[in-house]
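Open question from group meeting: does this chain pack into something compact, or does most of it stay loose? Before anyone orders reagents, we agreed to write out a predicted structure and look at it together. Recording both the input and the output here so the notebook holds the full record.
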Amino acid sequence: TWKWVVGPMFLYLCERLVRFWRSQQKVVITKVVIHPFKTIELQMMKKGFKMEVGQYIFVKCPAVSRLEWHPFTLTSAPEEDYFSIHVRIVGDWTEGLFNACGCDKQEFQEAWKLPKIAVDGPFGTASEDVFRYETVMLVGAGIGVTPFASVLKSVWYKYCHDATNLTLKKIYFYWLCRDTHAFEWFADLLQSLEAQMQERNNADFLSYNIYLTGWDETQATHFVVHHEEEKDVITGLKQKTLYGRPNWENEFKTIAERHPGSRIGVFLCGPEGLADTLNKQSISNSESDPRGVHFIFNKENF
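Structure tokens returned:
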């Protein structure tokens, strides 16, 4: 038995030593941004840090806990000179990080007072394959939208610098939220992309649909009253917020008709139930003919 155990244990110890060494490297918090509804953005720098879109890191803050490591998806693009994460304050550890960064204080926080942060990673995810397809469907549920912040930022940087070499030609983006709290910080990014695409006369490059899956009568009435306004009253975007859940069968059929003979990447960051639905639709809407349309499903769950 020991012959079978020694090899894997040696590899495991080597991996733990590499992770320990990486976690000891100095990380500098360059900026802390407070977003609405107790969401903070940490912008950081670390020597030799290289990332791809949609990757995640493990974060430890000794001022909060000496042993706890928590995974966070990177929301910055590889083209930026820093890496960032967005943290929603929903528990003891995140509350401790919120207070350690001085976000509970009104006065300006000096940089030297910010807590020390240890970072391990980055680690790869399915979202890295986005740029292998000409057409993609990005589906984020709630806070699962974070990896697509990195993707959309990177797409924009690539589009600005050399659009001719960009394989990706069309993005269908779906965002499902139970309430409006998560809209705030990500809607700002979509507004910026929307304005910049229109300036370059390529507004069709990004098609997005935002679904509010949980609402009450007051919100529904408000939606009806303001439906004719130029911009959506919730997000400030030209694309109006939709209520309920998408009809995935119709969405897949429509996209298949628009892109015959294409390989379409379907990327999800969301719950297991939604993953099963999208996987079944990807299979049922793919043609048996190799020259026909094919949906390639990729997922990461939380």
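Observations to bring back to the group:
The chain has a mean pLDDT of 79.
The first strand starts at residue 27 and ends at 35.
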